[in-house]
């Protein structure tokens, strides 16, 4: 049977007409059942009143609750619950009118059991046509899929994850046969779902069964539908797929889905970000919204990887003005265009872009006087460790002097909250970049002590997808045919996705009172050599056969591992499980900080490298000038000569 494709208003007009006919029938069946006779006798007046009330009140209530605006072709349990609730409400209202009327007018007799019997029959005659429409549509889609499969052989796929995302994906594949994917069933580690049928598809087993199920059911693709699963789980699935040489594809992570960048049906190949993914972060979005809504918010370095993501997430909270400050005009231009496309026509937010260099104090003072920001997220910084070892003057002028200029301007115009994006490399730094960021932290603490305002710093490690990320370097080396170069076999780093880091940064901003350092829980450190191996294997290549991994020696300023807290910082968990705090960080600010900053400024102005190095060593005892020299490189050797999984530092 062919179902005509009609718009919801037209289809619901038909349902309205059916309701007007079927409701009186339900009333009649209720009276007949109650009286045990087709002859209503003295009850015909009560019957007429109940019929009149049902055709007047029930459609009105249905319209109010949205029954007539639902698209019943895709009816689900939500629509069924809505229908039941609306029918119960209308029955109560009708019965109240009928019983009151029968009390006042003796000739009107309505048995007290009629409402209950009427509701049963009414629910059946109301839900019946709508459920039939849903069933006929399913039948139509099955016939359509069968026709598609006969014309073109569909790929047989296995869906990993029988949760909300997996069932939604299964429905999309069923309703869109043109995708050429025929779902055979699910696998899920939840024992409750084992052997269950979901959307007419069986749950065939757990993730460990993938390799056997691929052979048993002739699977050509495995679709991973677990947007909130940690990277460890994704890695286990990918390993199973690699055993049987079957392609694994994945739906986007929860951050991308929430951001609206992609939809759940946009499948892609598994990427390194998926293997390093952690459980989604729970944030108090109400607190973040209350902090930012209706305020003038400035993001420095707004065109960078982290700064642009801060812009995206801040925009959701509807600030009065979003001020994007950056030095690179192209990157600022791109993020401004992206945000304006997302901005609704009736949005109260105004977007302003400012091209300015934070190293120029007069320019920054002028910008702040014009825009008068209330909250600042300071993400502008030079972050590339080896480059800053070669250009220490730029690290000082941008990371140190630039931060000082921003803080001075912020205090002059009364900025209420200042959040600086710091780095784990600022802890016991061995690099110029890390040392410069540590001094910037001290400047933030000093400004907080002087003003009493919540000026804080937030530390986190490497972010996946940033412009300076090692992931991009590895991708380029793999595309070029290798080798993939790793500096040291024991080097480990903390990794986070940019959206996760920014989400936690915004959350930390709501917790700050002034002078604190917040450190994000970055999970377990990742061995860089393992990262390289995973990326090669995800590219469909084999380490040692298609592409080699070689060790080139540590670069200037690098450490084998990063730390999270400076000795003397009293740190503890906050009310948020993923955020640590060092409340006493401002007590570590040296009294001579202003004098030392002036020395740095003078040394940078005259390009006096020895003075800069002596100043860094004087301010930060853990910083040693001999560590900025390149250590003797390791003898280059293929990774095949080392254990497949070298020991992680700390294990």
- For the report, how would you describe the main beta sheet? 9 strands, mixed
Our count of helices gives: 21
The CATH architecture of the largest domain comes to 3-Layer(aba) Sandwich
CATH fold label of the largest domain: Rossmann fold
Strands, count: 22
The CATH superfamily of the largest domain is identified as: NAD(P)-binding Rossmann-like Domain
Mean model confidence by pLDDT: 79
Strand order of the largest sheet: 10-9-8-11-12-13-18-22-21
Beta percentage is 5-15%
Classified by CATH, the class of the largest domain is: Alpha Beta
Low-confidence stretches: 1-10, 260-264, 626-651
In short:
This protein is an alpha/beta fold and 651 residues long.
Write a structural description.
This protein is an alpha/beta fold and about 650 residues long. It has three domains: about 10-145, no CATH class; about 150-275, Rossmann fold, CATH 3.40.50; about 285-470 and about 495-525 and about 565-630, NAD(P)-binding Rossmann-like Domain (Rossmann fold). Strands 10-9-8-11-12-13-18-22-21 form a nine-stranded mixed β-sheet, with helices on both faces. It has a seven-stranded mixed β-sheet with strand order 3-4-2-1-5-6-7, with helices on both faces. Strands 14-17 form a two-stranded parallel sheet. Strand 5, helix 7 and strand 6 (about 245-250) form a beta-alpha-beta unit. It is globular. The model is unreliable at about 1-10, about 260-265 and about 625-650 (pLDDT under 50).
